[in-house]
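SEQUENCE-TO-STRUCTURE ENTRY
===========================
What this section holds: a protein sequence and its matching fold, both as plain text.
Question of interest: how does this chain fold, as expressed in backbone structure tokens?
***
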Amino acid sequence: MDFATSAGRSTSDYDITQTEEDQLACASEDRETNCWGCGLRVSVAAYASVFKCGWCGAITKEHVVKNDSIRLRRWRDRCFVTVVISFMLFFICAGVWAVYPVIFSISYFHGVFHLAITVILSICTLSSFCLSAFQPAGVPPIIIWGSYPAVGQGGLRNYTFCHYCSKPKSPLVHHCRSCGTCVLGMDHHCPFIGNCVGSANHRSFILFLLSTVISTIYVVIMTFYSALQIWPPVEHNRSLSRLSGFASPEFYFGVLKGNILAFLRSAVFLSARGVVLVYLFIASFSVGTGLSVLLWQQLSFIYVGKTYLSHLTAVDNEEVMERDCQNLIRFFGFPSKTTAYLPSYWKSRKAHEK
């Protein structure tokens, strides 16, 4: 009995040991494959799906699942661009129709002056929109790859292969599935311009946001002033004029509520021009608020020398980028002598800690 038990245990131990040896043997077996960057044969582990070439430094990612359904996204982007252009043209035409009869009634000089401002803001907004929407976002540079004599040591360091475009992709290049192309310095894909925001049109996109925010502020001011000029008479509550002494907060709340209701009742008698002015005021305030937040976010990323996409993919141990207004100056293409006119605390090149 003891002998049979010992024999059974020895057999089980032998089976377990043999299984472990088989697993180690399978894991230790290497396979050979070609590096896409230089074409050399590379020996990698059998289970490795990502490996780096020791010669050219290219990174190979295997078993990549491709998704080529971009027609719906392109159709969506074209619809967004059409809506945005129509909305901007409506704003310009409706604003001129609703505001400028009131402005010209004050004086001819005021009308011409504000009409010139409108033309300048409209040209800046439409031109910057067209530049950011209809020019390539950023074409990656052409690089030699696939041949060992042509690719030197470290010539493709940290490059990956884009299985959609079938060409090398540097760490600064990202593939946009909506546009179906690789973009250099990609910040994000904006459906409202139907294009990616990259190194080639990032400046145009910022100028578009800036001109749109300034335009919406101008429209808010002009529509508010014009609406006050043509607003129907409001029957104010005269209880405050007859009041003597102290009154409870409920009384003041009731008076304020009555005045608000009287103001809303007077809106029933607004003309078509007044209704358009109210709509332009509300829409301009809403759009301007949202775009101001987006503009502030974009300028914050530029200030730290990053893009929105690089901010999302950054790791905690990554080197701290230099935060300085020099990044803004380089981004907008100002000459380096511009820093001489900036305050001293703007010219600090000290790196901030995260």
